[in-house]
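Deviations from the work plan: none for this task. Representative record:
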Amino acid sequence: MQITLKDIARESGYSVTTVSRALAGYDDVNENTRRHIATIAETLGYQPNLLARQLRNQRTQTIGLITPAPDDDVGSEFFSQLLLSLSSAASRVGYDLLVSAQSAGEPEMAAYRRIVGGNRVDGMILARTRKHDERIAFLKSLNHPFAVNGRAAPDEVSDFAYIDVDSQAGIRAAVEHLTGLGHRQIGLILPPPEMAFTEFRHNGYCEGLAAADLPYRDEFVRYGDLMQSGGYMHANALLDQHPQMTAIVACNDLMALGAMSAAQARGLRVGYDLSITGFDDIPAAEYAHPPLTTIHQPMHEIGKLLVKILDSLIRGESTEQTQILLSSTLVIRASTGRRKGGADD
Amino acid sequence: MQITLKDIARESGYSVTTVSRALAGYDDVNENTRRHIATIAETLGYQPNLLARQLRNQRTQTIGLITPAPDDDVGSEFFSQLLLSLSSAASRVGYDLLVSAQSAGEPEMAAYRRIVGGNRVDGMILARTRKHDERIAFLKSLNHPFAVNGRAAPDEVSDFAYIDVDSQAGIRAAVEHLTGLGHRQIGLILPPPEMAFTEFRHNGYCEGLAAADLPYRDEFVRYGDLMQSGGYMHANALLDQHPQMTAIVACNDLMALGAMSAAQARGLRVGYDLSITGFDDIPAAEYAHPPLTTIHQPMHEIGKLLVKILDSLIRGESTEQTQILLSSTLVIRASTGRRKGGADD
DNA sequence: ATCGTCATCCAAATCGTTTCGGATATCTAT
DNA sequence: ATAGATATCCGAAACGATTTGGATGACGAT
């Protein structure tokens, strides 16, 4: 069914070797025969079998990405944006993207073993790093090229290629923005504790408070699940226990949106009675009601850089910079506003 | 570097054939030697080379999807949702997803030839069908399995597997919703004319008007680009030329959001002075200000069904139903409201 | 006439699996 | 003792490409 080099060889009277070299443009084949062979390949509609080529060359021109299964629907908005930006960045430099959705834990690791060990990709992209991340350990042990969106946790060494935004400074900026607006009682909804970046964000929160000489209060801090429902729940809990709270920092936009719903359900006007900030700047943030003050992640840029780094790792180039920390930018919208009424504390 | 069957054969003293059959669980290998071989494979950390297996089996367990390059950033929100739902649906039935981003036209077709002709996938998923779609013609000519999100245009035959929502009924329902609210001057922002579904939506609009005995006016209809900026521009144009217009039907959410911005920029209150509807129900629609009345597309369901259909096509099963038309549901939110003041026409 | 150079071509091995078609040895029934 | 069954194993040929290491013949220089 498929046209192979053998067919072209038979048709042209040359050997498979010569046909292969002719089509590859080697200069040890006569220009006339090259043209002749090219014409036959064209008319026969020859398409090289990429599997065979990959097997022989031990090179797939493919980048792998394993996304979380939507059961544990952790921030699908974030991942779908990453996916899109990666696929276009990859295509631009001649890679395809192989995607598999797996739920964290054993299925996820099995997918890594299968895809990486099975030679299906030249390199992997990881995202959403966890503490003592098993995937990173695995890829390092195999010495397989990979690039990560996100560093290791503060107390671990990030001895791998990554690109991350400085979320510590980002959260700090958000908190300072709030204290600047007069807020003194600021809640925090963190990512789950097992995420690598959670402590960075926690630290940023502490720094922000310290910069305004505000005390840190453990009961103002809660660990969420990065989903809307979690934001809703934790915002309610915070406001139940601390009615004097006038601002909440959520560590991603989905939780911030959930917190907004919770506030509005209790009759609070977001941006007036209660200020809320997010993180990521997903499209919905801009359209939220009110639009969400958040920390922007340049996903398009991140995708491009990840692919660029991974490509240089794969090619074994004297890689330029393989660890990049982007500065984060606070986008101020209407979900934050000056603290209204009430005494200080 | 990689552990192969040959290594296990050497280590165990059996032939490559027997090792292969042992690991595959054939019953013509002694149970003891099977266990022995399995143990060795385990300790050596054997992972089958999937490229070799695929080449030999002529089966890749992979589904391909080519997304538009974000240069022609046509509805990335829609595509990223589709991508995510497809990848998880595919993983669930044992397929990986191969993604390549290409801009429409020659690069896109080249990617189809390369990936399909190159034997990299068992089947393809298409989305955003166009009139006289070259990709569909190509896949049909190769007799390669594929499933499409979206039918052919009304005047073409849809002789291929697809799943689509009944957008004609959807738009009609939106128009009837508006006429029910008293609107008489209803604008329409269509998708680009080359899209296959454009006429369905146009027809739905006409039907909706007819059902309320309203005249069709060509100057109320404009072709957009599915992007926000287009919605913004066309809404402005409509409102400039027809200040009496009280409602606009946009054919996707991004354009609807753009139209909302345009309206708000001219001081119109959306849902009061001007009603706006969208299509797709992307996440941002719910969070829009005001929340957008729109027609819901069950992306998760669509992804699952596409994969199921494609899988049965690939396996050559006496395929159940390969053409599915989902009924569309209008989600009424605050961007539409009763027509205020003014005389009828 | 002989040698070296150059241009052009190709056989065979390789990448790692799977499978077809036996081969071999053991055992059962006669 | 022999034929036929049965259990267990394996060599070799695919799948379709690339590359190594020549082979061949024509040609000019000596």
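Residues 14-18, 21, 28-30, 33, 52, 54-58, 119 of chain A lie near DNA strand C (CB under 10 Å from a C1').
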